[in-house]
Fold each of these.
Amino acid sequence: SLYVSEYFSQSAQKLSFYSWYGNAKLFHFRVPEDTVLLRWLLQASRGKGPECTNMEITVHFRYGAPPVINPLGTDFPANATVRPSYSISITLSSAVQNTTFVNVTTPAAGDWFIAAHLPEAAGRIEVKGFSTPCPYMFQADMFVLRLADMPVLEPGVAMPQTIVSPAKALHVKVFVPKHTAVMWLELRNCVSSEQKACAVRVVLGSITLPQSFQRIITCVGKVNCSLALDSPPWEKWLQIMVESLGAANASVSVEMLASFRACRPGSTSSFLNFGSLNQSQTGPRPGSAGAAGSPTLSTGETSHNASDQRSFCLQNQPVVREDLDVVSVRYRLLNGPSVPVNSLSPTLLLLNLNTGMDSGGSLVVNLLLNKTSVSLANATVVACVSAASPVLSLNATHNCSTAFFQGYPLRVSTSSPEAMLIVLYPQTDDWFLSLQLICPKGQGECNAAEAKVTVFAYLTPCFNDCGPYGQCSLLRRHGYLYAGCSCKAGWGGWSCTDVTKAQSVSAQNLATLLLTLSNLMFLPAIAVAVYRYYLVEASVYTYTMFFSTFYHACDQPGVAVMCIMNYDTLQYCDFLGSVVSIWVTILCMSRVKKILKYVLFVLGTLLIAMSLQLDRRGVWNMMGPCLFALVIMIAAWVYHGVKRRHCYPPSWKRWVFYLLPGITLAFIAISVYAFMETNENYYYTHSIWHVLVASSVAFLLPPRDKHKKPWAWSQKLTCRYQICQNDREELYAVT
């Protein structure tokens, strides 16, 4: 046999601590057909700085769709199907780099996904620039060994093959046509070269993670052995591997024969299908009164179709796939939303999800039983949602499984007429919905009965749009798009339905009130600035108080939210006002000449506005203006001290009762802002920051100029007399 090796690689990604699915780094590979061996090369590394510690990286694998993971142990939405992902852990301890290999024999061809992440995030809010996070990098490479000339087993034709040695397995493949109900594989005339009993092991199917449904049979001492597969995957190549269990140098000769039993499908008239399609495009929707009368069938044709139902093993219902948006699809039944379900053969609906871009959302199937349509009160409609092939024996078995897939069961009855199923990240394939009527006393009781079931099926990026406490985010890895929910207000879970740590409405209102009303502490600073004739500074403080109040009213994660304008505009104005307030306060303390002070006011504000536009959350946007203003203030104070030959400011009362308390409050505020804020305590630690900063401004503002007189409100108007001041005017004559 000719083997071909191929290598696929993707660029490394920087890992993040896990708080929601967007923190997991996704890798998407495509395994080619006829692959007999798949090897993953996983490389993890970390930085060399002192901030880098021992770390455990979790890597998840899945075939057909991104892995469904739950590192935080939160709840999934009701009616959601969750199957644990296959995962491994990679530990970075003393070594800077770790290399791990993962082997998969006879992997399924198609899309494979790898997701990697760090442990749960600590929740601490880090100011950009105060600390340097350790970089943890992860890269996944894929090696495949592919058989270039894999023999093809034709149905009904015996194919002789020889297994040279136990070290070299025999690989063949067979194509499973559409509407296959049962497949038989038979091994004949198994003979060993050492004239001993033939011992071989046959493996049907490919490995899919996290669950694999390979079928294995062992033939020992038998000349012939066989295996039957119910509902094998339609329109796919099925790989078969035969291994010798004999001696090391013994060869085995065997004949292989594959045969199929087809399922005869029945469906409604093609004229009805085309008529419904035309009606849905130009007139009323299917199932409405206008649409029901447009396609007509004669009475003879109707009775003839009813009599033919007994000869069909399934009834096809035409379904139209309607693409709405990215990872958003609606399935529409041409003959109306209700489908007839009987006990003679299952009713089948095809849900096409094989475009390669549909596995990043959630498939939702909702069934609603029309109670008046069921003549038997104790009858039940059993349904099964499966991939690759449908379940064709609902009346015999209720395990909802095909040859290589465990389906998802549903059940509706007159006592429970509604059922819902949510498949998170459905794998890329053709999905089928099978429905059949079941009676507890036997199928003979249900032969003449029929039920009407309304089917709603759609693909959505996020189920229920993540609810009121979540945001549905569209994520991208190269050209592949998938969706995830980012929760807020303490809510968690895949669809933000976990209330374990959720904030109550009263707690949300309290958080909003604290973050907004704490800005009112700027009122004393504004009053002091106006009293001392610092009108420009008072205007800046008023601007900061206004936008900080309404920014935090708009920034709340829960229901207590009020946005007077665009969120991004409010955030920019809040950040700008905060930095400019610090800038003008320190420059005011420097007591430089007025013309120079106002020039620095305007120039500094323009530079701060530019830097905030470049990087709004950078620490140097605040520290840069502060340090530069402090340099100007210290230089001005040194100049005044040298000129007066005395310490400046000269009054010890100014130092003890104003400067030292103001500086202390400012340092405490910076410490709280930089080192104490977390996601859980943000609403009161940030409120403390507001109070401390505003209070420090009121202490740090210098006294008014000596030549400025105080606001003399008592001299304005008293008893209709106004005290006037005579000013000397110089008159000039122009000749």
Amino acid sequence: MSGAALGLEIVFVFFLALFLLHRYGDFKKQHRLVIIATLLAWYLCFLIVFILPLDVSTTIYNRCKLAVNSSPAESNGSYVTLAPSKQKCFKPWSYIPDGIMPIFWRVVYWTSQFLTWILLPFMQSYARSGGFSITGKIKTALIENAIYYGTYLLIFGAFLIYVAVNPNFNLQWNQLQTIGIAAANTWGLFLLVLLLGYGLVEIPRSHWNGAKRGYLLMKTYFKAAKLMTEKADAEENLEDIMEEVRKVSESIKYNHPLRKCVDTILKKCPTEYQERMGRNMDDYEDFDERQNTYPSEKSLAKLHKQVIYSVQRHRRTQVQWQILLEQAFYLEDVAKNESSATRQFVHTFHSQEPENKIIQYFYTPTVEWYWECLLRPWFYRVLAVVLAMFSVIVVWSECTFFSTKPVLSLFAVFIQLAEKTYNYIYIEMACFLTIFFLSICVYSTVFRIRVFNYYYLASHHQTDAYSLLFSGMLFCRLTPPLCLNFLGLTHMDATISHKNTQPTAYTSIMGSMRVLSFIADGFYIYYPMLVVILCIATYFSLGTRCLNLLGFQQFMGDSEMTSDLIDEGKELIRREKRKRQRQEEGENRRREWKERYGNRDDSTRSRAVHTDQKESSFSETNTNRPLSKYTRSNGRTERDRIELLQDAEPLDFNADSVSDDPLESDSGR
């Protein structure tokens, strides 16, 4: 089993990152480099979280071996036995051989740092650029990142000059590397505590409120009102941008050298606008002889950028509106079915997507009623209580993990108790649950936050390239300080525990923080205590109230603006529901008409075919008879029919009587 656990987790984490990226990104429409870079960033960050518990268990076993080797001992199979106390150091099932973890952490860490500080910022500017060629996009990205990269180079150069001039400093390359790592982790820890303080309160509260059907329905109405405003704004913005594109398309004809740029812009427009505008291929103008004012390539690049952004925003609001409608209809169905006497869940509208037959077999209407109306609220309440207990333990440990005698951090107490008995499965499970809960609190906040319309992770493949790359940057900057904070909570970091023991492979890659004592003994220890203030502020919704005062409408139960938006959203949902009902009624009537008269039409059609066959057979039997007897009469009958058709007048639909025979208007006829 040596190394097998590491290989399994590497494969599992890859598919987990791929699944999440498929949920938020769009593999078909977005650039492959954007998908690969974001997938690599997410994969490396998730990999650190999943592999770190294996590093902890391996380190505990190595410490046991060192303790055994320092005293008389005897070897026995896969473990080492102390002679005096007969203590056994069992090898964990997930033991990773020596030399693998340091190389693994070094590759993972420096790759993630290269992504977050160099590659992903450049790709953000590249993806957001409106250039029409690869060279133009690269040039724009370099110009936009010149200040970004120049600031880092200026700070680093000033620091090197200070170290070279000051004789008190005698830093080597390893120490400079540690200082750079400490600077990156300090920035990440600053943001980590802010996100963690929000997630520790909001995640248990969101699950507790998830058991309140009335609360969820009111919040859905509130979201519907806000989303309708955003949807209307996106449609209006798209109309304005398309009007500018139309003017540019009409002014720049097909023989203009910038026409290729215009065609590139037109390809990014929705299909209905492309058909409406066209290319104006019939109008030929010699632009060299006429003094017309044409837009420059720079202005076309700016317009191209606006088109990409407006089309993406319009598509996202349309999809989100449909998802929100389905959610509102479902919550209304739950509210109606709670008082059902039959205890069978009845949907107002049938699902538009085909359901799996296996799910339909097990998840019957009765099972759905018991789950949605009885079990699910209690499940959410119990889960909220468990998550709240975890949050309290994290807050307590964040405030007391610097205390080593006595050990006050509960996570450190759990790990030390398991270390005495060398229960590696318990150690790995405790470490995994701890770091997994911390990661959920931090990463879920990254998925929830929204910086106006510049950064927004929207599910159902509606996230743009800029937001995907920005999320990858945040993950790569937050994960290393998150892991160091976890090792500090469990006292596996020698800087916190003040013990001269073997460090974990991850800590050895980070280097000794003693090079910067004011960071190791000050910032890393006392700054995480700020999480208490942030949790209190989140519990009383201080941030939400501040945003509401600034004019950004937030869901607050005691606000008059919230009540108005809830009423508006309820009316919008009711209107969409009536519209959906009329559509389904029309489809049902057409289906009933086909079922009722479809067989009759088929029988009529078969009867007509049978009659034609009889007439054709009758004509075939009369082919051998003399035709001179019928030739003159048939010719007269054909002439009379043609004359009647020529003299017949068309129907007058404006006349008083429609049933009048137009042939009777001619008295001679």
Amino acid sequence: DVVFPLEGQDVVFPLYDKVKPEHVVPGMRALLAQLHKDIDALEASVQPSWEGLVEPLERLTDRHQRTWGIVSHLKGVADSEALRAAVEEVQPENVALGLRLAQSKPLYGAFKALKEGPAWETLTEAQKRVVDIELRDFVLGGVALEGEAQERYNAIQQQLAQLSTKFSNNVLDATKAFKKLVTDVSELEGLPPTALGLAAQQARSAGHDKATAEAGPWLLTLDFPSYYPVMTHAKNRALREEMYRAYITRASAGELDNSPIIEQVLSLRKEKAQLLGFANFAELSMASKMANLDRAEELLEELRDKSFAAAKADLADAQAHAAANGHDGELLWWDVAFWAERLREAKYDLKDEELRPYFALPAVLDGLFKVAKRLFDIDIVPADGEAPVWQSDVRFFKLMTNGAPRAYFFLDPYSRPAEKRGGAWMAEVVGRSKLLPAAAGSPPGSPRLPVAHMVCNQSPPVDGQPSLMTFREVETLFHEFGHALQHMMTTVDEGLVAGIRGVEWDAVELPSQFMENWCYDKPTLYSFAKHYQTGEPLPEDMFARLKAAKTFRSGTMMLRQVHFSSIDLELHSRFTPGAGESVFDRDAAVAQKTQVMPSFPQDRFLCSFSHIFAGGYSAGYYSYKWAEVLSADAFGAFEEAGLDDDAAVVATGRRFRDTVLALGGSKAPERVFELFRGRQPSTEALLRHNGLLVAA
């Protein structure tokens, strides 16, 4: 059976080890044909009731999302020419099925009748929320369009899907295309041993079999674990400039140029929004979020105002430190990270490299699972070998409560620049649902349990050592685990609003950003910060310096996020493509308010800004800041209860578990937040955590 590897017998754990690119087209086509028949049958017999409408729709959409999810996951972690070609071939048919569902007048009519009819009052709160979200999404999906308008809308959706994939492919290929082989170690002066080890390992995998960390040759790439140490540690200014220019202009020229794709995407999104009756794409995007354009921009302006002076001071401090240490002239774009790092080392006597040996991945995971046990009373148990994986480094775990499985997750931790896209993410394999069949061997009547994958791009193990993580990589792991917890810890049985489903996009970063705070909590950090060779705990004074350095350059960091969020909203609300001004001109104009240095004239960062051109964050990047207000305020509840009072921390942790993590999309996010915090959110905690209240 050709569909077999895509839809395995035990659908909860996909057969990742068996799926080949050649299965994708026939497997998806067979599935799509079946689903079209299922939609025909449902449209013909639909009843405006939960059993006659919502349940069959959940079965149908779940089968589609679960199977396409396998394909898109492998595209992200194990890309290949063959897989690209398969995705390109079948993607239009896949989009067409989504459009058919989103614009089905019989199904839309049934949802309206369900809301307006007598059955409405028999529904639970979660079920009502499902119906309301479906009604909203039908309208945003073009159900009310007729004739030519609907044809044009559908053509736009097809084009946008193709452009998004192309954008993403170009970024991966452009990142992969840059390779700099260095044979003279003096060119790499300042680079820490871990970076030299990684560069030699990259050289070996490129065919330089004899490469060693000490003798080279060394291969540098634009993959973040390779690029970032050069920008922060290499004394060789010409090398920093070369790498910076290559990184900031990725996918902006030649065959891989994303500039025309950006123009097309913006223009199509604007047209799509106007077809649906919105003034611009930002308003369409906000129609399904907590914020609206005015509220989002008000928040960004408040944060910009509170951080601008601090960011100016950050730059002046770095400039002064550079001048005092022999740097001549103004700092340029490829100098700032280097001198800021020297200043951080001088000010806090803190070197990332000295911290790494205390953050070996196995120990960090152990500590992460301990804090989850303490706060949420769950046990995470290794279950490697119990589900197929796509790569030998991938780990598999069970989340247990009271001795019984509650959820499962995969962890793919290391960077693989040849086949895996950059960044870190969490995605669902399957969600919790009482309607859908549980994994083989589950007790009768039990709901299907959630399965997640967490994907990171951290430093791989080098020369027989475990993966030694930077502190930022530790925070990233905690962040993705926060997302996974909201997916896995849900107690909602209605699949369409369980876990992260049905959670407004600008609230979805709450649990992930919340978890990052625990990296600075002393008992939590000391549960895993042990030297990987000696077992010695992180020295106390080092922890004190790490904590003190938390707000180092926080004005700069805040402003950077405000800039990304502002240009995103600007391009999607006030920019007109093809009117003579380029997106890069507009980026530079926005930067006059959101950057303390003049813009780099050749800055083409937008060409690799996958979040907004190939991810879910278009006119939504502000969500990181919006949700960080919520997450900082949520952590504030633990601070108020007293981080030193174990009983209070445990009680507050259980409350967070039973609201934010449990309720998923079954209630509006502002309601969930109030249930946890007892009031509306405030920006005070976010500004305080970033040391920006004083400046304000």
Amino acid sequence: NYLLGVGRADCTGPVAEVPLMGYANSDQVGGGLLTRLYSRAFIVADLEDSKRVVFVSADIGMMSQKLRLEVLKKLKSKYGDLYRQDNVILSGTHTHSGPAGYFQYTLFWITSKGLIKPSLNAIVDGIVKSIDIAHQNMKKGNLFINRGTVENSQINRSPFSYLENPASERSRYSSNTDKEMVMLKMVGENGQELGFISWFAVHPVSMNNTNHLVNSDNVGYASYLFEQEKNKGMLPGEGSFVAAFASSNLGDVSPNIKGPFCINTGESCNNPQSTCPVGGAKMCMAMGPGYDMFDSTRIIGQNIYLKAKELYEEASQEVTGPLSSAHQWVNMSDVSVELNATHTVKTCKPALGYSFAAGTIDGVGAFNFTQGSVEGDPFWDGIRDQLLGEPSNETKACHKPKPILFSTGEMTWPHPWHPDIVDVQIATVGSLAIVAVPGEFTTMSGRRLREAVKREFDSHAAPGMDVVIAGLCNVYTHYIATYEEYQTQRYEAASTIYGPHTLSAYIQLYRGLARAIATNTVQDLPRGPEPPVFNISSITLLPPLTVDRAPANKTFGDVLQEVRQQYQANEVVEVTFVGANPRTSAENATAHNFLTVERHNTTSDSWHVVQNDASWDTRFYWTKGQIGRSKVTIEWHIPHGTELGVYRIRYFGHYRKRLSLTHTVSIPFEGTSSTFEIIAP
């Protein structure tokens, strides 16, 4: 028996003009909303309430050090020492369609257009609010664990790197991805269903880098389906049941299960360099199972949801036992690793290799770099040396065979480009150990880490631990490939920023945490060096928020393109309004809803909201025009089984108006479509 609390809060942030975080493609800028982003918080406390563990999974690309430090600062001012560095795990789902701009290290500013305060604040506030809700709703309950295999939802996107791992190791596994989903189910003592956390390794990149609508991708769609089912009669984002689909060792795992094809010729490009005969690496893209990216997101999300549903319903193995947590800060650019009694190696100052610029088959890079580059290129080296400085001989030697593109650990202007100080953290809930990792472990890296942690627990009289990896936690350090995978220098290896022995260093560190928990000596662990906090106000290349303008003889919210009079299920209702910049709305309200679909109730002659902007079936598009003008188009993809009747679509916005030279205000407005009827086919 434990005290359990769950909470969910909106963390969407600005949906327009802000770059999306994930593909590092500066053209991929927000232009609307498909589904809202949420932070989902889970608190477990023992009945004496002497120990607590908090796990948060947020629909964002990854946690950042700045996010974590700000969240913990707010928790401290609210709750004192209840929620701390050691017992709060913050994990990102790794959607590539959420707003960027919440990092303090310079590298991430380049494609994020700097540090974007509205982005950062929305995520910090959303995470804290979700924890507040969980904290306020603690009740006695029970935990159950279950695990099972998810089929047809992932492929290894660097199979040639995976094959570099020893044959004896590979032969112990049936697949080159981890297909297992682990589920932790929470039930109140009166049988009330509270929610669950599941962990499964897949990249949320069913939405590709041509997408401009903010959304939570495949795992977010799985959460949406589960929460819609359990919170009956509620709009998306409402209701008390919380379903988290959290990330795991997804480093080399893609949901684009048809594999890589040349988009110009249609032939396969499943080769070690992921290149096409015509057009090179730029043309090689992996395809999902659907007819477009929305459909692929739906199919993969539904697969994951259906497995979770089965595991949830059948979960019967109860989790009992004490709670514990351990956390350290480590200077990852300077860890000595004892490989064996005679051999010690070291990690390196962070650096990114050439293949980092190649991207992956899920999202290719900009300049036709190819994966698997173990040679530099005099042209790019020359540009880099001029702009950013040449890597030192020491760093070059340390990272071999990686040819260094950006020696980020030696770049400090205006602030360091990459973190040196990294969080390592484990929390245990009875027999479940949650290993919170600061990046993207590949399939085999994850297996080695889980095994090492399990062995450590076993050898200190804590046998039978279920070890799960929670990905993208606390601070982002790109990828962690195995030493063998590192030698081929595909994207994941080129992005293993602390050099070839990164994984060995993490294994050593997490074993130390596991040992401390198992032997009850957590209080003796050194805290490690505190991460720096750079004093950055808001450095941003975002266009400034200007005054919004409506066309002549029109006003904000007027309909420019009307709906038809009748539709059938599976058709798309579309209406276009005179719009205003959605960023103005985001700065006015934490949870602004941009649209509703409403059904007319004839008996009461009133309108009833049936969908909102968090709904999977609605799409909100914002198009910027000249001199402050803009248009908003709202689509409703009428789902099968929609009740027949009379409907309308409404749009809610804010426009910015100038009162004087120095003073602007934002003014709320709304627009409503004509009514339309949904008829039987």
